[in-house]
Amino acid sequence: SDVCSSDLGLRCERHGALVFTGVSHHVRQGDRTVVRSVSGSGKTTLLEVLAGLRRPAEGDVLWSEDVANATAAMFSMDLPFAQHSTLREVVSDTALLAALQLEELANRELRTLSGGQQQRALLAIAVAHPAPLILLDEPTSALDEANAMRVIDVINSSAKTFVMATHDPRLLAIATDELVLG
How far apart are CA 170 and CA 156, in angstroms? Predict the structure, then answer.
């Protein structure tokens, strides 16, 4: 079944300028949808609209009845909401932490982790989040090959529904669906 759709054709503007128009797409439960296009074409804006953080200039995001009143959770590659928390305080799934090679770092405050460690920690937080739809903005962008593959493996093995803005062809390889903007 569909988790959400934008049947009405989304049109989004940023600072009065058209970012994209005519986007219509269905996201089904369990999908790994990759949103791709050139930089500056609205990938992040689309994720913000799906998360309810930005209103489209035209069109609407429609949720299916079985996830009525649900929201999508958007995770971009920073952690302003949990800087003084330890990873263990926000993620209790030890198998998830192990899959991302974060178990030894679980008792450190997130603000003390390196950028790549924070990026993997953010994915752990996203996968552990209860929202039916997880939105990821460039989840592998700053990771080395081994850590990018860990992130991709966790996304691929999760039962969650993902929409991911990315330029990474490795994420395209695990995608069940693709949305190209522009």
Answer: 11
